[in-house]
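Reviewer 2 asked us to include a model.

Predict the structure of this chain.
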Amino acid sequence: MKLPPVQPLEENYLCKNMKEFVELMERTLAKGPGAFFKILGKVDGIPYYGTVLIDNQKIIAVEIQDVRGGSVLTGKPALQLLKEMITAGPVVVDAFPLDDVDVKMSIVDNLEVYNATPKMRLEDVCPSLREKSGEGIKRPPEKTESYEEGGHKAEEKAKPQPKRLTISLEVPTNLEPYFRALANRIAKYSKSIGVEPRQITVKAREVRYALGAGVGIHTTVEIEGSVNSKLPKGEIKKILEEFLYREAGELSRELGKRVVISNVLFRT
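Predicted model (structure tokens):
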């Protein structure tokens, strides 16, 4: 499914059970009248990757992909599998709040999936979801930007928000959960050696080798950030390369395909 160009409220957020997923859903819908979720979880040991579009009362489009097999489900089977994923837990979730226009555009952009999806109320998929007086999930009133103090109007000063790490993936859809997890491991390791990453870009493409030698995944990683280390930049790049070669080996075993790190770029 196609996601509108919106900023996530949470990325790679671990929900250990349905209650925590419902809390994340409520928090996301408090930001707008709709939401888009990307959900990675397992059912009977098989990993699935779901994309879900909702408004504040019901699920309006859902698509579930078998990460290993590549098959895609929509309609009632997808809804049932989604419920099993959330119930079984844990799941890793990306949550995107949507405004009214974003919801409508998401329906237009995913019309085939929308038409195939029975419109099911949120509490039917998540029984632990609390009823909201028949009005769906209510959004809190918007905060004003000013207030009266001592008879004079004073402006509230917004607290500066720390810059968030941006992760950019240009990889096959079925591999996205694996490479997103890799990008997060890169970020964590980078911080451990004195690098504060601002942008991590991972590009991967499948390459079929000649003479039946199988399929490889050629990968380029670009890390941009600031350095809080006395190590020379060249030495830091070498350390990052060695880390990525080890990660590629682990990922190769997980995917059953050879992951090759073609290039590592490090910029400050």
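The mean pLDDT is 81. Helices lie at 18-29, 75-88, 100-109, 111-116, 122-125, 176-192, 233-255. We have added this to the supplementary material.
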